[in-house]
Design a protein that fits this description.
Layout (H helix, E strand, L loop, with lengths): L2 H13 L4 E2 L24 H4 L9 E9 L15 E10 L4 H15 L7 E6 L11 H12 L7 E2 L1 E3 L5 E3 L5 E4 L1 H4 E2 L13 E11 L21 E14 L5 E14 H8 L9 H14 L8 H19 L8 H20 L10 H7 L5 H5 L1 H27 L5 E2 L1 H11 L3 H10 L3 E2 L1 H14 L4 H4 L9 H21 L5 E6 L4 E6 L6 H16 L4 E7 H6 L13 E7 L8 E4 L17 E10 L2 E8 L1
Parallel strand pairs: 1-2, 4-8, 5-8, 13-14
Antiparallel strand pairs: 2-3, 3-12, 4-10, 6-7, 9-10, 10-11, 11-12, 15-16, 16-21, 17-18, 18-19, 20-21
Helix pairs in contact: 3-4, 7-8, 8-9, 8-12, 9-12, 13-15, 17-18
Length: 623
């Protein structure tokens, strides 16, 4: 079954049961500064699971785009991908286990057509220390559902073997696991939960592909075994407990259901094929890699095929959501995906500078569900093409430098030099080193990276200072100019314009902003004229520190206001006498008067271009 069919069936199934269908949130979290990416379906809904009222009601469903950077190293087996879609349905204080478990069983067996004989269940075994009982209610529900299919679903204990693996009794279908496997809270197991934290048991559904057990993963197979026989396809979390100040647990007044299911994994199960890369949206890319490389996927290069395919798809969706390749923050992972894919495509034997040609096969496959990705195809192709060209220019020189290393260990400084000078992500260096049996001192590299970040990287702390490379006079002037530029863009193009990022050096400013189309020459001239007018008016630049709510009431704008504390610094250009032209959240520094910008010349836009779907970039100078 195609993933578009699985997605449609799922959304329709729960919509028919009173759920409001939500659109997928961006891969770049809008209101969560604690993480770089949206990594689960529940992440954008966390405030509502914690008690806030959702405007769309108490029954919700969607298919959420997700990216998990921690899975990059896992890609290459039959199931792990960095980008994936998570099917999710939620009950916010409405239905609970009695509805959720039968509904999901019905969806899998009736809508998708999975054989119930291939479904296996895991259940929370209980936590004796914290006096939280095992989930007997969920067990009875599963037993009843299987019995209706003439299946005797025995529930069995798991116990630990001497070597640390887990073994279940024979002929089991429902398996008990401890809190490490079948409990959910933001802090993990019950012992780690802080006072006031909600959590609860979960029940997971696994599909049995019937493949032979690999004893390298333990003497006996069971649902949570990593040998490849079983694949988790869905997890229902029943959030019903609250941790009290005295360390005990009590029942929550509002019980919630948080379900997450892997769209790609359910599609793989529908085909009874344990290789997730055989699903339609991934296999179409693999087939084209076969054509370009003249090598069969069914061979010893299978892992490399999977890495290239996964990393390309992940980069396509990242760029479509505005996460372009850079050396910092989220963009670093887009760059890391692409550069790792390029190295592996070379190993496969694909022609150089060809990675971007595979993009249309991905955007077309997702055109119906995510038209924004198809609409951004030309931008995505260009970004990936340019990234490959950039990488290849430094790759040859970097490889020559790498080959000079004759020792058995690569020092942290050597690895960092490869990163800083030649753009080698540390993981790429480690893979190259492994081929030469060279050890990379990763701990020393991390120290070098930390030192670099503290002294020069434009990280989160510098976002509050406008993305300045330094605090020289010209950088400060260009920083003030970005405030004038943003307001000028909003005046000329409309209030839909908001800053999406900036990078400032003593030589120029770079400013990213929301706008759906290329600016005309007239619009650029009008923006330039308005900025220069405000410079010539010699407007005072000042700031105030105030409560964030007051700043918002006054109409202050800013990209990073969700990351500020209770009090914020607001910079304004102009005053009550001259009129306030710009009012923004910002940490500074700035000039004291706009006339200082005119001492070096006039403001001029050098270039205006697309960055990603709906995001434009201006490069400008004062000369």
């Amino acid at each position: 079954m195609k993933i578009s069919q699985v997605r449609m069936k799922y959304l329709r199934f729960f919509a028919e049961r009173g759920h409001t269908v939500l659109l997928s949130a961006s891969l770049s979290p809008e209101n969560d500064p604690t993480t770089l990416f949206t990594g689960s379906g529940m992440q954008p809904l966390l405030p509502y699971l914690l008690g806030e009222k959702h405007p769309q009601g108490v029954r919700l469903v969607n298919s959420q785009k997700c990216f998990r950077a921690e899975d990059i190293e896992e890609v290459g087996d039959n199931r792990h991908t960095t980008f994936f879609e998570m099917l999710g349905n939620w009950s916010l204080g409405d239905y609970f286990k009695q509805e959720q478990i039968p509904w999901f069983f019905e969806f899998l067996t009736k809508e998708i057509g999975l054989d119930p004989h291939n479904l296996y269940i895991t259940i929370f075994a209980g936590d004796e220390k914290n006096k939280i009982p095992r989930d007997a209610e969920a067990v009875q529900l599963w037993k009843r559902l299987f019995k209706e299919q003439d299946i005797d679903a025995k529930d069995v204990e798991l116990f630990t073997e001497r070597q640390g693996g887990e073994r279940g009794m024979q002929n089991g279908r429902i398996f008990y696991y401890n809190a490490k496997k079948n409990w959910w809270s933001r802090a993990g197991i019950p012992d780690n939960m802080p006072t006031g934290e909600p959590g609860g048991p979960d029940t997971e559904v696994f599909y049995d592909f019937g493949t032979e057990h690999d004893t390298a993963y333990g003497a006996h197979c069971h649902p949570n075994c990593d040998c490849g026989r079983f694949m988790e396809i869905g997890n229902s979390v029943f959030m019903e407990y609250l941790k009290n100040a005295d360390g005990t647990f009590s029942k929550l007044p509002q019980r919630n259901v948080d379900f997450g299911g892997g769209l790609e994994r359910i599609a793989a199960a529908s085909e009874n094929d344990p290789d997730i890369f055989k699903i339609d949206v991934l296999y179409t890319v693999i087939k084209h890699i076969e054509e370009l490389s003249s090598i069969s996927y069914i061979g010893d290069k299978k892992k490399l095929f999977r890495i290239v395919t996964d990393h390309l798809r992940g980069a396509v969706f990242m760029i479509a959501d505005g996460i372009i390749p850079t050396n910092t923050d989220a963009g670093y992972f887009t760059r890391r995906l692409l550069r790792r894919a390029i190295l592996h495509m070379d190993t496969i034997g694909m022609p150089k500078n060809i990675l971007s040609s595979l993009v249309p096969h991905i955007t077309k496959a997702y055109s119906e569900a995510y038209p924004n990705v198809e609409n951004a195809k030309s931008i995505i192709v260009q970004e990936i093409k340019e990234e490959e060209e950039r990488f290849r220019k430094t790759l040859e020189r970097g490889l020559k430098e790498f080959e000079k290393i004759q020792s058995a260990e690569l020092t942290g400084k050597q690895a960092f030099d490869l990163y800083q000078t030649y753009g080698f992500p540390i993981e790429v260096t480690e893979e190259l080193a492994a081929k030469k049996n060279v050890h990379v001192n990763r701990k020393a590299f991390d120290k070098e990276m930390q030192k670099h970040q503290q002294t020069s990287r434009i990280g989160a702390e510098k976002k509050f200072k406008g993305g300045l490379a330094d605090h020289s006079d010209m950088s400060v002037k260009y920083h003030t100019a970005t405030h004038l530029l943003q307001q000028a863009l909003r005046t000329i193009l409309g209030d839909h314009v908001f800053q999406k990022g900036s990078n400032i050096t003593p030589e120029r400013l770079r400013f990213d902003f929301t706008h759906g189309k290329k600016m005309s020459d007239e619009e650029k001239r009008n923006v330039e004229n308005l900025v220069n007018q405000k410079i010539s008016e010699a407007l005072p630049v000042s700031y105030q520190i105030m409560p964030i709510e007051e700043a918002k009431k006054r109409g202050a704008i800013g990209l990073f206001d969700d990351q500020y504390g209770d009090e914020v610094k607001i910079y304004q250009v102009g005053d009550t006498a001259s009129g306030i032209f710009s009012l923004e959240f910002c940490g500074g520094p700035h000039v004291q008067n706009t006339k200082e910008l005119g001492e070096k010349g006039v403001f001029k836009i050098q270039k205006e271009e697309a960055v990603s779907a709906g995001i434009r970039r201006i490069k400008a100078v004062i000369q």
